[in-house]
Each structure stands twice: as structure tokens, then as C-alpha cells.
Amino acid sequence: MAQSGQAAGALNNGFGGQVILHLARNGDTLTAATSADKLFVSQDDGRHWRPLGGYPAPQTAAERHGEQLYTTNCQACHGDHGIGESPAPGKTSLAPALDETAHAWHHTDEQLEKVILEGLPSPSRMPAWSGTLTPTDARDLIAYMKSLWDARALRCQGPKHMSPECRR
């Protein structure tokens, strides 16, 4: 954000498909509120962002292994910590967020495992990972994804997401 005598500059779009709705400055800290009801902070004029409160740390061995697999195989498309792919010129389909801001939690663990291992049909860009990942690897990836979800997404995963108590 430009202040008197400063030039304006572009912010790093590390928000996946989320859009900044509000932006505020308090000293050296920028705070952004996004369309997914998330708050992010930056200490370097918007070049790097982290969620207010930080990212959850993987707790189990499966979550830690899943995080490693995610960083190696999934992050390039699905973004840091599952935030989703950021729009860019020429991109017609975006890899969705895998945190609770998109619809990954609308699927059961079994459905997620099938998508990871078998991919999705064209025009999706989601390849089959069965030649690279084992079923155990896929389950560890799902454990990591679920470590990024909020309590509501965990409670309402799968078909339960349509129940009245799970709708926002």
C-alpha cells in the first residue's frame, strides 16, 4: 500500500482462488481479509503472507509424511498449505484449494483416495498418481489435507456436508 511519498506495488497473489476483500495496515503489518473468511498477515509489504495464527503443524506421523508428499507432488498446483492455485493469464482451469475453503471436504476419504490414485478425466489436469504413490501414501496425503481443515469441515466431511447443521 502506498503511503504519502511511496510508490504502489503489486501484492504477491498467494491466496489461491481467494480474493482480498479488505486490506489494512498497522505499522509494518498488512492484514488482508479474503473472500473465504480468512485473515492473512504480511510483514514485508505483501511479498509474503501467512494466515493469522499461522498454519497448523502436522501432529501425527501420517500427517507429517503426507506433508512431505504434498510438498513434493501436489504443492506446485494446489499451492502452499493447500490454498489452491492462483489465477494467472492464460490459465483456464485452476487446481482447487484442498483446505476447507473449497469442496475437498465434501468427499469421503475413499473418494479422495480414488482421485489421488486414479486422477480425473479430461479436461481436468489432475493426473493419476498410482505409478508414483501407494495407497498408504494417498491416505497420508489425505491425513495432511484434513490437518488443514477447520472443525466444521472435519465434522461435516462427505455426504454430511449437505445436512442443515453443516451449512453456513
From TrEMBL:
Coiled-coil zones: none
InterPro entries hit by this protein: Cyt_c-like_dom, Cyt_c-like_dom_sf, Cytochrome_c-type_DH
Keywords annotated in UniProt: Heme, Iron, Metal-binding
Domain Cytochrome c: 61-149
Gene3D superfamilies reported in the protein's UniProt record: Cytochrome c-like domain
Matches recorded under PROSITE patterns: CYTC (PS51007)
A GO term for molecular function: metal ion binding
Domain of life (superkingdom): Bacteria
Stored Pfam families: Cytochrome_CBB3
Name of the protein this chain belongs to: Cytochrome c
Organism: Nitrogeniibacter mangrovi
